[in-house]
Prior knowledge:
With 150 residues, the protein is of the alpha+beta class. It contains one helix and six strands; from the N terminus they run ββαββββ. The radius of gyration is 21 Å and the shape is elongated. It starts with 14 loop residues before the first strand and ends in an 18-residue tail after the last strand. β1 and β2 (26-30) form a beta hairpin. The strands form two sheets. A four-stranded antiparallel beta sheet has the order 3-4-5-6, with helices on one face. Strands 1-2 form a two-stranded antiparallel ribbon. 15% of the residues lie in helices and 21% in strands. It has two domains: 1-59, no CATH class; 77-132, no CATH class. Bound molecules: zinc ion.
Amino acid sequence: MTDKPVQATKHCRHYDYKNTPGSGDYGPSCALGFDLTAPGAWRRCAPDPDIGCASRSDYTDEERAAWSAYRANRLAMIPVALAAFKEHIGPGEAKSADCPHCAGMLTVARASNGHAWLICSNRECVGPVHFNIDRRTAWPPLNTESEPTS
Ligand SMILES: [Zn+2]
């Protein structure tokens, strides 16, 4: 597994968005301490800002390329992990399988309301990944080897 590069978005590198409701630490923030709580104040930090900020610092193209490659690699791990499951997992079920990416154990849990989660026991590996799967859908797709028909 590769080391996680800096999350080089198109926002200013000082920008962050806390997303823990009820923690009292919620919403946009600036590492330099600019107050972003006023309506629209965060726009100074956004891609293509329409409000000037003399302290803005954008990620470099190299940082963005490293982050993009990392994300693509992480996304490609998901279907490989799901292919480790050899049976469909019905609503209300959870199953485990050996992780094809590490020595950990994968778990898929599927709720009856359509929510499903995939995670590896190795925190540096796959997940947690959330899916919305219609309860009538046979899931995950099984990796069946098909013979030529003619
Ligand atoms: Zn793993």
